[in-house]
Amino acid sequence: MKHIALCGALAVLLAALLAGCGARAAASARPADSRELKSTPPDSMHATAAITEQYTLEKVVQAENGSKVRLNIHLPRLESDSADAARINAEIARYYEYDVQDYADCPEAADPDVWDICIEMNWNASWYGDCVSLVVSSCYGGTDAPFHNGWCFDFESGNQLTATQLLQRMGADPAALEEALYRDVKRRDELDRQAACERGLLPPGSLKEGNTAWWATLDELPFSFDEAGNVSFVVGRFSASGGEYVNDVPVIPLDAQPLPENWEQQVLTEWMAVTAVTQEGSYAPADRNESYTLRLEKAEITGTVTVSFIRETYGSPQIQSAAETRTGELNAGAVTGWDGEKSQGWNLTCLSEDGRSSWTISMMEDGSLRMQSTGPKKGSEVWYVFRRTSAWDDIGFSAIPRRLWGTYRAGDEAAKGIRWMTFLPDGSCCMSVEWDGWSGILTGTAEGTQGRTEDGTELYFKLTDQNGRPCEFWAILLNDDGSPSGCSLKYRAGEVLFDRDTRPAYWKNDSPDLTLVP
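The line above is the sequence of DUF4430 domain-containing protein; the predicted structure tokens follow.
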């Protein structure tokens, strides 16, 4: 004989996934001989039981064909005299009458600990005031996922509600919930199909050829909700990689908001951190000659974004650079920042390969991005505030534009003049200069002003030599003319312009990339 415990495990799993309530815990009242369910009636309900069990059956029977069948049956009954309640009760009773009744009168098996198949029927209720969302699951002995059906009912009026009506009463936006739900389930399906393609079960390029919808409206989907303000929908689909039907149970925040129509245009770009906040306090990375760049790009899987986090430390004459790339999953729900301010109603969650650290990225109402970085060590949490790099020149941290940060070397090794120069985020600069009869290092700080001309960006500095003697007033004109060789350069000391137009000199960033260790 084969002892099949999988059915019970599935039922326990689904009960755990669907357990919970909105405003109050699940309500049930049971006959004295039924099993104890961990639930209590809501405080606002009348003294008599709101939900009882019309069928309660737990035993192992010997079927006519010789097999042993374990019956674990618990089917609810709405205790209401309304016509809608009677209709719902009759619909629930049919599960028992069609699939269980023939076994109920069979003799009990001699050994109740061994059986061949198992029939499971269970239920769960989530309460919001006098309204309930009732979910019934049924499993018929195989390895396929259980079936689920749901009903929403208002005990005060005695009327059946649609899922949409109950969600609206709870203050949710059904359209936003469905949008978030679709992204979640579509992402699961595409990841599943991707695995099937890698195993040769599907032809290459069929990632997007799966079902585009598993339901017409939310009213078709059973759902429950919990005290944390989350809604769990049960969505069945076919797994291409597993070759079986599965149940997805996405958890969506009740207060989910729809994404802006131009979400991708707003977010999929490059961002730079203007502030970092740790337990020790906040600081501007540019003040430490550091930069944190966040690059968001569209990924192939629906609801996912490729997130690259680049950390650079600017020194002279080199930059140390490290980068890490993760896949972020787009979720509904706002994020509360370190200062208590809430983001818009979505977030990107990125886990490291070992799952020990995470990034949570969200957009604020002012258009900035915030990223919460957490690691396994205590005190490792860091918050970053990002702005678009295209707007960096207007932020005001330095007179040196973001695109010019770094170290540049002269392309013409034979030419006299500046050999290399470094522009740092804090506004300082360092130059190696070789003139006829003199060579050395000049250092200085940007004057806080810059001029933009049709030829490029002109930067103003006061420089000193290695002995601290001040030099003349300097200006550097860098022009990114699109050459693969780098930026063309003009520079002047005082009013004398050193023009390289007759022999173009190009400058390229000479900074090595270092591998990031998570």
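Note on the example: The first helix runs from residue 6 to 18. The longest strand covers residues 438-453.
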